[in-house]
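EI: anyone free to look at a 983-residue chain?
SC: sure, send it
EI:
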Amino acid sequence: MKPLVAFFSLALMMQASVIWTAESDHRLHVPDGFVIEKVAGDPQIVFPMFAAFDDRGRLYVAESSGLDLYQELQAQTRRCRVRRLEDRDGDGKFESSQVFADQLVFPMGLCWRAGRLYVADSPDLVTYEDVDGDGRAERREVILTGFGHQDNGSLHGLVFGPDGLLYMTMGQPDGYRLRRPDGTNLTGRSGALIRCRPDGSDPEVLCRGFENLVEVVFTPQGEMIGTDNWFQKPVGGLRDALVDLAPGGLYPRLLEDEGTLHPVTGRPLPAISLFPAVALSGLARYEGGTWGDAFQGQLFSAQHNSRRVQRHELTRVGSTFASREFDFVTTDDPDFHPSDVLQDADGSLLVIDTGGWYVQHCPTGRIRNSRAPGGIYRVRQAGPAMRAGPDSSRPAASPGSRDLLAQQRALWELARREDPSSLQTLRQALEDPDGDMIATAARALALRRDTQCAGKLCQLLSASQPHVRRAAAEALARCARADALPALLDALTKQPDHFLEHALVHAVYRIATRQQLRAALAHPLPAVQRCALVLLDHHPHRAARSEDVVTRLGAADEALEETALSILLRHPEWAEDAQELLRRWLDAPALADVQRAALPGLIVAFQSQPAMQQLVGDKLREPEVPHDRRILLLRALGQCSLAQLPRSWIDGLAAAVGDSTASIQHAAVETAARLQIQQLDAVLIDLVENPDAPTPLRVEALGAVVVRHQILADSSFNLLVRLLDDGKNPLDRLAATEVLGRAELSDSQLTVTLSRAPADPLVWPQLLPAFRNSSSPELGFALVHRLLQLAESQIFRPSPSDVLATLRTYPQGVLDEAADLLDKLRHSTADQEARLAECESLARGGDVERGRMVFFGKEVACSACHRVGTDGGNVGPDLTRIGAVRSPRDLIESIVVPSSTFAQGYENYLVVTSDGRVASGVIASQSADTLVLHGASGKAQRFQKAHVEEMTRQAVSIMPDGLDRKLTSKQFQDLLTFLQSLK
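SC: here you go
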């Protein structure tokens, strides 16, 4: 899912003050030495999301309307508001609540500055002022506009930095189009960190490439750290991230962005820490003194899905950070969903719990849908000042740490001034013995674009502390003169870490001319060559030459070779060089890992070039080509998007289908099924009719042709039916079921199918469409009775609309007979709730290892679609860390009623094409021209978008209902225990 960023308010609330008595909440757990208590709740505040203090300690809270965030943003319905809460007697509870501003479109960020409340009100960034002091804002001003408003990636995360500038975050696909004073537009479609002046002028993009960057905090030195959701496609169950936000940085979720002209400085920047799908939200940096020095500078993040607040203990590693995570606020309550965390003036932390309204787009469950109103909690220390705890290795800060912070704040205050005299003080700070003071001064001077400090900054590129070198490089990107280039290139030769290397390359980008970059290509060290090659290939130069790239293919330095390969793939005009490279790779005795990984991409990038097409076709048929290379070629063809495959490729595929090597034959059939190539039907049918061929291969070949050969021969039908009641391999059964569901079966074949199909929830969702091809009353009555049996046993509960669509060709009497079935299906919610209640007792007490055996076993075939660690399929969400983000109740619901909610990116779509193909599945990938679906069995099908007549999101999950009924209570209990252990 694309995680929650900010959240918002209920429309019916009192404006008068309400007395609230704080209460300790025993559902919530905090470390020893701390207490947590509720300090505001319903009716003062309902569905609170983000919050901000003003300079008088009053708390402004954005409330949700409690409705569908996506729909409300898109429709611009303006049903949300901001409330102002006050603790008038200083006891830590908020006694007063009133509406400060209303008619807002999901305000997903707010902050206070100089008497004005800044609010994200997409498509606008606005300010509110209470002019007459009555507690309600009368003045609203739009200071910047042009932000997209499609989903929770819209404008959010407002915060003022130490430089006095206003920072904000964006996600994709919302994007932005912001007007500059000179009449040009600042545009982009990837998630980004943006900043502007307090009046909304001079907007600039600092870094980009995010799915959903949420909130940002600043170190005293000016480094930026943020929470980011969907930092990467889940790998090993890890998806979300705490990120070091480098100016000019590129992050991995959306690399190409036509609007933002940041160069690619190398590989995308990595995360500080990776997390499961916890939906990181609000972030705070602790700067209080009441909890002891050991807490100073630590971060606290609100994690919506995992129902917790975590503490992040940062340490410096090279020029960036590492983090250790410790739970700080935890609960088993499924209704607790923290969305923000912020520090109060007394050093306590406020935790904003948004409650239970956000069920449309996060996998928290629709059926329960408690509408819990949420609230605000305060975490404070129970006793005297203490260290961060026995699990912390962080030493206490020095007695002078607060003096250092004060000095750093003074430097930032100087940076915000316009008078020249302040520059001298900042330059002098570059000579300070403390590295943190130097780093602060460097970034402060960068804000002033002071070129006179460039010489000293160049010297600092050789400082002993990596974070000082990085600060100097970042400052040189804004302060440097052309004579700084030698120092920057020299620093690249000293094995900088990833973030320092990025800062150096970004500074070179800012000052180097094309001629200087071309000269740098002759440098003897690969790091400098790599920098020059990357920058020559990007804006504003676009001057990389094929010979620059080709001479570095096969370089001893792996990073230089990767850079050359990535540039080659972006230049279709270099097809001749790409063809020669592919020829060398295919003829080589062995391939390096980087070459093996790049080979499919090389073919895809140059797929439209005739010479490349011919080479691939020839090599497919050459027996001398090593088997591993031929398989790579076959897999590459399946990734291509050509509307018409070259004849040489089709001939090569045909030869591979008949190959005597099983692995080559399997890869060829899989590719043919994916691409749906009519010219291969004859060889695939021959394979289907070959009784000596492996059964799974015959079924896959049949699946590749059934769309065009829907009437099945008896031999083919018998092959499939045999697999229906063969419990040895559920994947083979599922593959056979998918083919039967797409075939045009005769009445006699349907009768046999009905009698042989087991009461298996994996079978019936795929099989039911086959019965739309008949009008036989006898068959119709038998089908209705069978469906009623399955529904009563909760094995299979199709939607009423699916039943009506299936029976539309049968006589009216069959439809009349289905009345009881339809009535049961329409009123199945009570059955589902009873089953959920029945299963809740199974959430504890199982055995992890037995549960692992259930997950990877054949009975329910969980691992056919889901991955845990390195094992399993990729059709459904990666479950490697599912126990960290889903409550036991959520896990039960996702198994018992899987269609109640969908994890984002795993929605089920029905596709109908102009040539009669019908398929359903999860979108595996898509480009401008092609769409690839993964069906329930994991088989991929490719579609040309030009031929797609209908694409509809289905209300029914690709994961079928009733899987829990295939298990004994003990098996289900063990499975739940195993899933909860995955953290």
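EI: The two ends are 18 Å apart (CA to CA).
SC: 👍
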